[in-house]
Amino acid sequence: MQPTDTNRVTELELIIDLHKNSERQGPGSKNDTLKALEILNLPTNQKLKVADIGCGSGGQTITLAEKLNGEIIAVDLFPEFLNELNEKSQKLGLSDKIVTLEKSMEDLPFDKSEFDLIWSEGAIYNIGFENGLKKWNDYLKVGGYLAVSEITWITNSRPKEIENFWKAEYPEIDIASNKIKQLEDNGYTLIGYFYLNQESWLKNYYEPMKVRFETFLSRNGNSELARKVVDENQYEIDLYQKFKDYYSYGFYLARKN
Ligand SMILES: C[S@@+](CC[C@H](N)C(=O)[O-])C[C@H]1O[C@@H](n2cnc3c(N)ncnc32)[C@H](O)[C@@H]1O
């Protein structure tokens, strides 16, 4: 997206524009994806049917395609990100393993028990963790696997400033034991979980985003709305720097009962 009439660009278009042409649209890393795969210890003697929901430009999709035997349906709401993933998968010779699908995760055209594995890094929050667990359960085979990362408090209490910020942004933020209980209450058995380390936030997500701020502002005519988008992201980065010992993404690996 290269907006020419900045007055008509919406905030959502600007957010997409800020996150385009980046390796990832959220905290994470190739090592995190590999670690999650190692914990899952997936069967290797069969082809797997996999959905990667909220795939963005496909940082994790490429790693999954490199590692797994099978087909991945990579879903996102925004074609801008899917186009980037298609380009990458073609360049890497992985396009026979990755099919992109422009759809909302709320309304997926999947069959009951269609998938061996549902993957979703930093995206289930868009429909809410528990709602996503319930909705997606149907698409998994019995014994199928779920891998989701979700913002999670690391400590049982925390300063009000950060508590208030995240409660307003995402009221479902919680400690891992409550997230695990939600998994267990909704037909899954936990296989394992881990927290993303600070490098996955800073080096892989926030620092590259900060580098893009200047070109983002100039290609959007330094508009008030573009500056608002930058200021809000900068505020989130500042809060992370100040309170990074209190929250991270939890990566939850589970099996459908
Ligand atoms: C934080 S990003 C994570 C992207 C990618 N998984 C990663 O870790 O780099 C969340 C993704 O969810 C997508 N998204 C937001 N709402 C969605 C919806 N209703 N259905 C499908 N995807 C959605 C966004 O476009 C974005 O790519």
From the 3D structure, determine the CATH topology.
Answer: Rossmann fold
Q: Whole-number average pLDDT? A: 96
As a percent range, the share of helical residues equals: 40-55%
The arrangement of helices and strands along the chain is: HHEHEHEEHEHEHEHHE
Low-pLDDT stretches are 1-6
How much of the sequence lies in strands comes to: 15-25%
Major beta sheet, specifics?
Answer: 8 strands, mixed
Number of helices: 9
* CATH class division: Alpha Beta
Brief overview:
The chain is an alpha/beta fold. It has helices at 11-19, 30-40, 59-67, 79-91, 129-137, 160-169, 176-185, 198-219, 224-243; strands at residues 48-53, 70-76, 98-102, 115-120, 140-153, 174-175, 188-195, 247-256. The chain is built from 9 helices and 8 strands.
Features:
alpha/beta, disordered N terminus, 8-stranded mixed β-sheet, 257 residues, single chain
List the SSEs and their pairings.
Blueprint: H1 11-19, H2 30-40, E1 48-53, H3 59-67, E2 70-76, H4 79-91, E3 98-102, E4 115-120, H5 129-137, E5 140-153, H6 160-169, E6 174-175, H7 176-185, E7 188-195, H8 198-219, H9 224-243, E8 247-256
Parallel strand pairs: 1-2, 1-4, 2-3, 4-5, 5-6
Antiparallel strand pairs: 5-8, 7-8
Bound molecules: S-adenosylmethionine.
